[in-house]
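Notebook, p. 212. Picked up where the previous page left off. The plan for this session was modest: take the two constructs that came back from the sequencing core last week, fold each one, and keep the raw output in the notebook itself so nobody has to go hunting through shared drives later. Recording the first one now, exactly as returned: residue sequence, then the structure token string.
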Amino acid sequence: MSPSLAWLMLVIAGLLDVGWAISMKYAEGYTRPGWSIASLVLLAAFVFLLGRALKVLEIGVAYSVWTGIGAAGTFLIGVVLFGETLSAMKLAGIALVLTGIAALKLA
């Protein structure tokens, strides 16, 4: 697998991680069957893609990037879907996460 494909898989895994987190919220403690199944499918999909990407990419960089995508994406979707609070400090924190992801990718 090429490094470009591994990076693509990693980004998709990060986006699936966001979907997984949101589906867990909607699953309400795994009491709603449809959302619970969606959550488990998304979990399996992102673990699979992350594992494939790790065959090529350095684990420290890949895991940090994947976690950052998941954290930033979940935060932003939480604001949009669930009306979670948005402040200048939180935006600065997300900007730092995204800056860190870019730095790791460029390193």
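Okay, moving on. Second construct, recorded in the same format:
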Amino acid sequence: MIRSLPILLVLALGASAPADISLVKGEENTVSFYGFLRLEAAYQDHGMNHLVASRYPMPDEPEYDDDSVNLTAMNSRFGFKWTGPALPGGTRIGGGFEFDLFDPSSRNQMKARTRLAFLELKGDQYSLIAGQHWDLFGAGLTRSLITNGFYWETGNTGFRRAQLRYTRFLGDAQDLAVSVGDPATAAGIFNGMPVFQARYGFKWGDGKRSGAGVYAAWGEEKVEGQAVPIEGMGFDLSWAVSPSLTLLAELSTGKNLKIFLSRAGTRPLADGGIRGQKTVAGFLQVIYTVNRVELYAGYATERFDDPIPTRTLGDSDAVYGGTVHNLGRGVSYGLELTRFTGDYEGMNQAKAHQATFAFTYSF
């Protein structure tokens, strides 16, 4: 139910993942290598926040009214999975390390960037993870070829952080997880308060292919000497309606959720106080698979329930659709079309269209 390495790989590729490459296979230790090599090309008809990690359009002003095209391989991704010896009582030791080549300051001068790095102790009824892993808050993953933009700050929430997470397996179809994690921002770090998260998830259907969960998070920042809570809740859904049709959805709401890649931060009050901006964010997506072709369409949005400063981006939306053709042996290609809109306070609505092409070899 919780985001994991195999699930992440399948969703990121938009195609069936082949078997990992076995590097070590011993009586007590096994190590496997996985990942994908990828060429990505994008065309934008209006300025976006980023050429590679596109999330929302820039204002409707002449300086941003230019077409752009770029090609990059920096979204290639690699990882290692390790299963080690068993402790007394049967608990297995394991872990994972995953990195990509994303560098926000460049498109082709790539740098290794750590995504996941964790140790896991796993028994029949529990799991203990220590290290960098996915958040419990915003545990859904939209299917997209925009690998690093990923509709964050436009509906999709949840990211990765260093944490200590305990999961209790309640039979084979339910789990309850809690975590204590890094507060991410200077205002949180120097407030001396970690971020607390929790999620309850359950599965159903043939092969437990469908799943859903409810989650919550709480933390605190100190802004100009004032304590400002980080608080939110939501749910995620992955429903296998039929062997060929899947519905994905996520909805979250709360205040000051920027550490989960919302755009909701803090705002000053007339009386001199400071509080977190209120937001509602989510996405809805339908995926249809036939033979080796996957078709999908979705809608993502973030809406603010607070006044927005002039010339600042408030509500944003994305309508998107795409197709991925799996040629077999780990080779696939796909095309995704997206219409981004953004409401800048006191300005015309900004619009941008993006076409994303990806050619991928996964292993």
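Notes on construct two before I forget. The mean pLDDT is 93.
Flagging for discussion at group meeting.
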